[in-house]
TrEMBL record:
<dbReference type="InterPro" id="IPR003765">
    <property type="entry name" value="NO3_reductase_chaperone_NarJ"/>
</dbReference>
<dbReference type="GO" id="GO:0051131">
    <property type="term" value="P:chaperone-mediated protein complex assembly"/>
</dbReference>
<dbReference type="InterPro" id="IPR020945">
    <property type="entry name" value="DMSO/NO3_reduct_chaperone"/>
</dbReference>
<keyword id="KW-0534">Nitrate assimilation</keyword>
<dbReference type="GO" id="GO:0051082">
    <property type="term" value="F:unfolded protein binding"/>
</dbReference>
<dbReference type="GO" id="GO:0016530">
    <property type="term" value="F:metallochaperone activity"/>
</dbReference>
<dbReference type="InterPro" id="IPR036411">
    <property type="entry name" value="TorD-like_sf"/>
</dbReference>
<dbReference type="Pfam" id="PF02613">
    <property type="entry name" value="Nitrate_red_del"/>
</dbReference>
<protein>
    <submittedName>
        <fullName>Nitrate reductase molybdenum cofactor assembly chaperone</fullName>
    </submittedName>
</protein>
<dbReference type="GO" id="GO:0042128">
    <property type="term" value="P:nitrate assimilation"/>
</dbReference>
């Protein structure tokens, strides 16, 4: 689905690609029918906000929101397993899933990085993509609720993902609202320093990484393109895998 590729790009660290592709993004958002008209407007509003100002300002706002602590972390398993060793096995399993489906990872991001996961799902058929989102519905709702509470336009991305997965965003968010209301959010540098002081956990040994077969020559590859950007924007006009999957 093209819209998953759009949301993947919007949730990744802002680059010049967003500015250069804003017309294509707008076309893809307007064309999709897997989210409601209201949700299309909300996602488009995020595109407009990101591209209306200076790129460095967008990058600074992104880092302040997503890269300070775990509250808004874009790593799926961080919300499930924290720093436990169970997270390492979950990563190995997800990497194996990517490999089995011929999706090669050639970035430095962890496999549970949400924009990467969405890019993977954008290559899947629609039922598989919807099921993949449904599997993490609670986490999508949790992040959506937290972002709504902060008044962030990024909430539109997670609300759209909930809708694609077959859930009503308002209902899903309401189900986690009590949990979110009781959370204490601290994005101070002192709190960030405290996180860094926690004991580091090695999730995967080099042998485990090798066994996952990343970039394996034996598997049919859907190699991620354009290494110049963090999550590699593929021109819709040349993306055969996304044809008629909006």
């Amino acid at each position: 689905m093209k819209i998953l590729k759009v949301i993947s790009l919007l949730l990744d660290y802002p680059t010049q690609v967003i500015f250069d592709a804003k017309d294509e993004l707008a076309q893809a958002i307007a064309a999709t029918r897997v989210i409601s008209p209201e949700q299309r407007l909300a996602v488009q509003a995020l595109v407009d906000e990101l591209t209306a100002g200076d790129l460095m300002d967008a990058q600074e706002a992104y880092v302040k929101l997503f890269n300070r602590g775990r509250h808004f972390s874009l790593l799926l398993f961080e919300h499930v397993h924290g720093e436990s060793r169970d997270r390492g096995q979950a990563m190995v399993d997800l990497m194996a899933q990517y490999e089995n489906d011929g999706f090669a990872i050639d970035t430095k991001e962890l496999p549970d990085y949400i924009p990467l996961y969405l890019e993977y799902l954008s290559h899947c058929d629609e039922p598989t993509a919807r099921a993949g989102l449904a599997d993490v519905e609670h986490l999508l709702a949790l992040l959506a609720a937290r972002l709504v509470e902060q008044g962030s336009p990024y909430a539109a991305c997670f609300q759209a993902l909930l809708q694609i997965a077959g859930f009503e965003p308002e209902v899903a968010i309401a189900e986690v609202s009590e949990q979110v209301s009781q959370e204490v959010y601290d994005d101070s540098f002192e709190a960030l320093d405290a996180l860094w002081e926690e004991e580091a956990v090695t999730f995967m040994s080099s042998e485990q990484t090798d066994s996952c077969g990343i970039n394996s020559a034996n598997a049919p590859q859907k190699q991620r393109e354009d290494v110049a950007v963090p999550l590699h924007w593929v021109d819709f006009a040349h993306d055969a895998t996304a044809t008629n999957k909006v």
